[in-house]
Design brief:
Bound molecules: 2'-deoxycytidine-5'-monophosphate
CATH superfamily: P-loop containing nucleotide triphosphate hydrolases
Number of strands: 8
Helix content: 40-55%
Strand content: 15-25%
Order of helices and strands: EHEHHEEEHHEHEHHEH
Mean pLDDT: 93
Shape: globular
Number of domains: 1
Largest sheet: 5 strands, parallel
Distance between the termini: 14 Å
Strand order of the largest sheet: 2-6-1-7-8
Length: about 230
């Protein structure tokens, strides 16, 4: 029996996380939030005082990446993320940890160290893989690939609302410049840059509701899965 893999790539704030969760629930597939893995590695390296010294301590950082002690628990409130047994679900979503993740993400050896870990998520009946390089690098053979984007302005507005709902104070101008800087870093890095796979469906969510994007995705995935079955 084949394991179906559906990849959803794109910049943060495009609605990827929300949509990937809804799509995984719809098909009863497993879910890989690869950004969370980069965030967990960033947090773990920061706790060990290594985040500012990644290059000087590369082998140690690779070993930490390979042996990250993490768990994703499905709870009524959503997915709970544990690092070394500690609940870090909220901590990993902060801007500070996002910046650690971004530092980790530009180092090829650390990306490679996380590769097998990500592929291990592909289990029956299937996987929804959410990230930046899911369709291009981690699961190039995926049955369906989606690239979800939105303008930097609309992503900044969504992020401000999200941060405010978590009780964090956020200014739109700061968030927008953070998003632009992170997009640039993610798109221009040499290894696994953020870009659509050649065979991906492109969706711009700037002017669409979550439900509208969901419908487009399901229509596309159903058609792709039907093709894969036949
Ligand atoms: O999606 P996110 O904001 O949680 O991702 C955090 C960081 O990790 C972001 O800078 C991009 C990086 N990342 C990556 O390089 N490759 C992935 N597959 C997922 C995330």
């Amino acid at each position: 029996m084949s394991i179906y893999v559906i990849t959803i790539d794109g910049p943060s704030g495009s609605g990827k996380g929300t949509l990937a969760t809804k799509i995984a629930q719809h098909y009863h597939y497993h879910l890989l939030d690869s950004g969370a893995l980069y965030r967990l590695l960033g947090l773990s390296l920061e706790k060990r005082k290594l985040i500012e010294h990644l290059h000087e301590n590369l082998q140690e950082c690779i070993d930490i990446a390979r042996n990250l002690n993490i768990e994703f628990l499905v709870t009524e409130q959503g997915i709970q993320v544990l690092l070394d047994g500690e609940d870090v679900s909220q901590t990993i979503r902060t801007e500070v940890v996002g910046a650690f993740a971004s530092k980790v993400a530009v180092i090829p050896e650390l990306r490679t160290a996380l590769l097998q870990r990500q592929r291990d998520f592909a289990q029956l009946p299937g996987l929804i893989a959410d990230g930046r390089d899911m369709g291009t690098v981690v699961f190039p053979e995926a049955q369906a690939k989606i690239y979800l984007t939105a303008s930097a302005e609309s992503r900044a507005q969504r992020r401000v609302k999200q941060l405010q709902s978590m009780g964090e104070d956020a200014k739109i101008a700061d968030i927008l410049s953070n998003i632009q800087a992170r997009d640039k870093r993610d798109m221009e890095r040499e290894v696994a840059p953020l870009k659509p796979a050649v065979d991906a469906l492109l969706i711009d969510s700037s002017e669409l509701t979550i439900d509208e994007v969901f419908t487009q995705m399901v229509n596309y995935i159903d058609a792709r899965l039907e093709k894969a079955f036949s």
